[in-house]
Amino acid sequence: MSLVAPHPDPAEAATAPARIRFEHVSVDFPTARGPMRVLDDVSFDIRNGEFVSIIGPSGCGKTTLMNIVGGFVQPTQGRVLLDGKPVVGPGPDRGVIFQEYGVFPWLTVRQNIEFGLKLSASKVPAAQREETVTRYMRLMGLSDFASHFPKHLSGGMRQRLAIARAYAVRPQFLLMDEPFGALDAQTRSAMQDLLLEVLQSEGKTVLLITHSVEEAIYLSSRIVVVTARPARIRTIIDVPFGYPRAEAVHEDPRFGELRAHIRDLVMQEYAAQARQAVRMSD
Amino acid sequence: MSLVAPHPDPAEAATAPARIRFEHVSVDFPTARGPMRVLDDVSFDIRNGEFVSIIGPSGCGKTTLMNIVGGFVQPTQGRVLLDGKPVVGPGPDRGVIFQEYGVFPWLTVRQNIEFGLKLSASKVPAAQREETVTRYMRLMGLSDFASHFPKHLSGGMRQRLAIARAYAVRPQFLLMDEPFGALDAQTRSAMQDLLLEVLQSEGKTVLLITHSVEEAIYLSSRIVVVTARPARIRTIIDVPFGYPRAEAVHEDPRFGELRAHIRDLVMQEYAAQARQAVRMSD
Amino acid sequence: MTTVTSADLAAPAPVPRARRLLGRVGLVLAPWLLILLAWYAVRASGLVSPALVPAPHAVLAKFLELARGRLAADMWMSTQRVFLGVALGVSLAVPVGFCLGWYRGLRGLIDPVINFFRALPPIALIPLVIVYFGIGETAKTVILFYASFFAGVIVMYEGIAQISPIFIKVARTLGATDLEIFGKVIVPLTIPHILTAVRVALGVAWATLVASELIAAQQGLGALIQDASAFFQLDTIYVGIICIGFIALAMDLALRAATRRLVAWQDRIA
Amino acid sequence: MTTVTSADLAAPAPVPRARRLLGRVGLVLAPWLLILLAWYAVRASGLVSPALVPAPHAVLAKFLELARGRLAADMWMSTQRVFLGVALGVSLAVPVGFCLGWYRGLRGLIDPVINFFRALPPIALIPLVIVYFGIGETAKTVILFYASFFAGVIVMYEGIAQISPIFIKVARTLGATDLEIFGKVIVPLTIPHILTAVRVALGVAWATLVASELIAAQQGLGALIQDASAFFQLDTIYVGIICIGFIALAMDLALRAATRRLVAWQDRIA
Amino acid sequence: RTKVKVGYLHTPAVDGHIWIGQQTGSFAKQGLDLEMVKFTTGLELFQAMIGGSLDVLATGAVLSNFPARGQGKAFLMNNIEYATAQLWVREDAGIKTLADLKGKQISTTTGTTAHVFLDTALRSAKVDPKDVKLVNQRMTEAVSSFISGAVPAVALWVPFDSVIKKQLPNARRLVDASAFFPQAAIMGGWAARNDFYDKNQPVIKKLIAGWAEANALITGKPDEAAEMLQKAQYQDVPLPDFKEQFKASKYYTNAEWRTRYQDGTVTKWLQQVTDFFVATGGIQNAVKASEYFDAKPFLDTVQA
Ligand SMILES: Nc1ncnc2c1ncn2[C@@H]1O[C@H](COP(=O)(O)OP(=O)(O)OP(=O)(O)O)[C@@H](O)[C@H]1O
Ligand SMILES: Nc1ncnc2c1ncn2[C@@H]1O[C@H](COP(=O)(O)OP(=O)(O)OP(=O)(O)O)[C@@H](O)[C@H]1O
Ligand SMILES: [Mg+2]
Ligand SMILES: [Mg+2]
Q1: Which residue, A169, A203, D121, E26, shows the most beta carbons closer than 10 Å to its own?
Q2: Is residue D15 scored above 60 in pLDDT?
Q3: Whose CA is nearest to atom 25 of ligand 2?
Q4: What are the transmembrane regions (chains A, B) (predicted)?
Q5: What is the pLDDT of residues A220-278, one digit of tens each?
Q6: Ligand 1 atom closest to Cα of residue A60
């Protein structure tokens, strides 16, 4: 596998069956000045057990992309197939961590995590529920806050709560939209390691949106760099590290190279978007 | 000025008059299990034109600290003096960028930025208003979205909107709570540069909460590292770079040293907090 | 963001535009036809004396007869009174609701008084109103105002109390005064609640109309209904009731159409 | 987060606990004393005939007299009817409001019907109610149910429509069915709206009480007021009205005390 | 021309004289300009007058109630509720005589002519009014309850009897007010606000004079008067029905009234009804009919 390889050919990758398949997906949002294109002809596959990260400038359309897989937004053109069937709506097979968290304000920390486990669709047996909740509270450093309402939590704690809630139901797919954005560096890296452990033990297919190039490299098997709005696929990069993955890869020289390369790509996209210079002087 | 110097002595620093002074500030929040200490005997000064960053683990009490200066939370013990007078409530002298943005959902992007300028307290003459709003929309890359409501903005765009709104009224103090957390690396660095320019041209006193050690070093004159909850001052570090500051300081060897030192401190704090190991295995 | 609710997802396959429109009209009419049918059925069943339930066509005939006479004036008078009462009532309910939500001291002071008075039956107030406001238009408007205000104020108060503090905090840091916070934050943020308050007040005001027109009303739908009661003219009573229902419905629809733009900013599920 | 509103900031310097309590009680009583004063003033002023406004002490005397007789039973009957009517009305309003907010198709179908019926005056409906439900307790409860339901449903619908879609989205990704979304997301999230709906419905129901007891009530405060009206016993009318006001106030306070915990999760300004 | 604000209830017995007087111009002839305000119940009517919104009012039996509380002076009688107050029973209720009413539910509107009549009727049969279950409803509801079978008996006033006749052909009219005449009679008539009455004696007399002319027409040519009235104010009621209703109340000629004003019969009848209100409605320190009723203006105006 080459160090920095744009994804070769969609046809070639399709030999292993795709679990998530984007087929010429475009999205237009209606605005006062007519439809605005946000996603433009996006096609790529995510195979079983893959961890795909999306990187691109703010406002380009990443969340929209995830929302299509989640079943919350319908593409204007093209379609997204989930195990070969078009997405018709949200479902518990796809766990989603939203950029705005969406923790339930009327439930305590414990009840928030418990929510999915108490639904009829839950695959977690009732006997195990208590244990699962307690474990995730501990893992997220929320044990002391079990009976707090979200309004009494700090920003980072709310984000961790959203993560715990999504993990607890053990979905096959994880769709994560900047899930660690509000965390300090150390908590963040602990969360990253936890995610890797979860993947290892439960075997998930993950779509991660992140602004951190390091995070993308450290976690993913492939990284999709998208262009400024409308988001097109700029390039898809294979990450040359296997799983299980350890902190040590940060020191790998290929890590630095990859980071420089991706930063460069993103920088170009950012520059394209910001033709209107972000300078006060003019 | 020594490279990595814990702040010498509060008494000594007080020779220049403090604009913001924390005097033995403690905060307890009531919980079901009795009061929980969140801030513990915090004392330090911020002098005119200083840029002070706060770094500490998630949930330690940083936002609470800022809320006291903002006038939203009253300390249980001690007090905060603003130019010698105790803080009694919020005011337009202190511009705040909240962790949760707080953009006004009922106003368009343009109206959000305009909000402060149209108030009776505004120091911006009406004639200049239009220009100010247009400039900030351009600087924030929001020009195309002038008449969009926030619900149609991406997460990062909302955050930029909150920044623009706070800058537009030109407050003397800026209190910023992870203001760039939802932005991609490039947009973030553009925003950092913009902030430095604003400081240079308008001369502000800034309190910044951030999870990014690089950001803290790149922007601040001093960095306050706080302990895990309850937040105490672990150490205060002088940053050895002057203003105006350029991207180049990132390459300065002292930058790397400082970063390593601070990371280490924060790591220790994080570890203290996370005695309960964040490991799935157990 | 575009929300996909279950209703969307279950949307039928696309059909030609004209047929869809027809279908929609049919759907809107369906419940009314059902009610009409039930009405005839009740009469036919013989369960209740037909003397007590006039036939729909008899009511229609009476409607047409009245339409040539007093009905237009009645409808106009009543609509006018309700409109005025609700407009005044809600205009006062908004600032009072704000003050209740905003000034804790005032709340403790005024809240019990409001909760006391809002339960008083308009019917029972008529004597007092006559004493203080006479028997003219003012008196009727006062009753409707009373009903609207107290229906609206509680919706407003609850709506304002539920406002998230973050917006107030932000406004303060931008330098807003109490008055500016009211005008530029609370009012826009509570527009949806104001609309709810207006809708509730409209319903309550129409329901109070008959009581208000107990005060020497020569004209108005309430007066029509009472006049008819005095002679047991059931068909006229039905005409009056149905007119009230449809005018109220029309006002509600107009209100919502006129204000749809005002809540466009809200991310809501319906 | 602790919000500091202007009211807090203007809080007076700390005073001894006992004196503060006394002060608070005084503050709560103040508006009532003011009303009492105004009442005497009106009588003293001679602006209105004293025959039309009984003196407060006369009303009190009448109250004490009635208290030894029928009053307790009247209060009990009325309270019971209102309670039942509101309980039933709101219990139905919640799911109906949910359906309206949730199923777009249903909304188009049912919404106009609801807006038609909710404006119909309870007074005008009495003949119909007698025809269908007789003159027993059922009939009175039906009227109060009617008033409560329609007052509540609109508050519920608006409350549900304003729910932020994010919570529904999250619930869906966790596997919630429509029913679970209703029970575990919509209901808790609309608890504040339900409380508003109950409060509005309580007010409306009390205000409708007199109308409902126009249906042949031997007991009840509405019946008391009407019996007194028939004989121009102003003091008794005042006793009835004031009793209604205070029972309604007590119910409102009890409701809020009982449910304060239910909205503890909300970040609100009041 | 003098403006007079007149409140009234809209039934032929109460407003018949007024409308006929208006039509024939008998009030105008006296230089009076009547401003007519319609009310639905006696309570609002009296309150509006006491509150100063009305100068005089025309009403039914409550004429003996409010003035007895010191509010308003009665000065003119319209009619006698003769066969206008009636007691109806359902055929299936097993009520044959007044005595059978014991323990039964009877619906009526309390404080009205019908209630006064019912009270008289029960007492005449030695039934204590406390031994029946009085169901107080507005008359529409009372009749609805009766027709729907919720109550077995109803005490009503015309024209509500016509509904029952049409819908329940088997229902029986047990008795009407004419049975107790002339030992007891319920009158409808006029009252004036106290201060208005004291200060405007000439206007009162003019009112009486205008009324007397209308009364002459009603007693002289009852059919013509009924037709006039029906055409102008009661188009909703078919003419034959209206005539029947009109005749149900008893109209005295001016001369007949004069004798009864003079010999105290009117005062006696008023006092009887006032006694009822005192007993049933708890009037304290009731004013006697001889004080609240003033026969003088009538006797002065209508000469023998
Ligand atoms: N419902 C909508 N209607 C109109 N425009 C929308 C809507 N939702 C999103 N947009 C627009 O689509 C674009 C992409 O939004 P999206 O949220 O996907 O960006 P993003 O890549 O996630 O950005 P960020 O990194 O800032 O979160 C933005 O310009 C936004 O304004
Ligand atoms: N109103 C409140 N009542 C009770 N506890 C509170 C309240 N506000 C904050 N807390 C608690 O105080 C602690 C510190 O919160 P704060 O928001 O200051 O943290 P932070 O340092 O800003 O964290 P983050 O980096 O995650 O935003 C948290 O444990 C939080 O749960
Ligand atoms: Mg996004
Ligand atoms: Mg924080």
Answers
A1: D121
A2: no
A3: B58
A4: none
A5: 999 999 988 888 999 999 998 888 888 888 888 999 999 999 988 888 877 776 653 34
A6: 21
> Hey, CA dihedral for D157, D161, D164, D166, is it positive or negative?
positive
Q: What's the CATH fold of domain C59-262?
A: MetI-like fold (1.10.3720)
Instruction: Please tell me whether residue E148 adopts helix, strand or coil conformation.
Output: helix
What digits encode the pLDDT tens for the residues E126-160?
999 889 988 888 888 888 888 888 889 999 988 88
Strand order in the sheet with B51-55: B94-97, B173-177, B205-209, B51-55, B222-226, B233-238
Is the beta carbon of B147 within 6 A of some atom in ligand 1? no
Number of inter-chain CB pairs under 8 A, A vs C = 17
D window 199-238, beta carbon within 8 A of B: none
Sheet architecture: strand order including A173-177:
A94-97, A173-177, A205-209, A51-55, A222-226, A233-238
pLDDT tens digits, B135-163: 999 999 898 899 999 999 999 999 999 99
For chain A, domains (ranges, CATH) are: 20-93+172-239 (3.40.50.300), 103-170 (no CATH)
Which ligand has an atom closest to residue A143 CA? 2
Verify whether ligand 1 is closer than 6 Å to residue B169 (CB atom): no
Hey, where are the domains in chain C?
Answer: 59-262
Instruction: Determine whether the interchain pair B156/A193 forms a contact, defined as Cβ–Cβ distance below 8 Å.
Output: no
What average pLDDT score do residues A111-120 get? 92
HEC secondary structure over chain C: CCCCCHHHHCCCCCCCHHHHHHHHHHHHHHHHHHHHHHHHHHHHHCCCCHHHCCCHHHHHHHHHHHHCCCHHHHHHHHHHHHHHHHHHHHHHHHHHHHHHHHCHHHHHHHHHHHHHHCCCCHHHHHHHHHHHHCCCHHHHHHHHHHHHHHHHHHHHHHHHHCCCHHHHHHHHHCCCCHHHHHHHHHHHHHHHHHHHHHHHHHHHHHHHHHHHCCCCCCCCHHHHHHHHHHCCCHHHHHHHHHHHHHHHHHHHHHHHHHHHHHHCCCCCCC
Please report which confidence band the pLDDT of residue C8 belongs to, taking 50, 70 and 90 as the band edges: very low
Helices (H), chain E: 12-24, 26-29, 42-50, 113-124, 139-148, 160-167, 194-199, 201-220, 222-233, 239-248, 254-262, 265-281, 289-292, 296-301
Chain E residues with beta carbon closer than 8 angstroms to that of C135: 37, 48, 53-54
Instruction: Provide the ipTM.
Output: 0.82
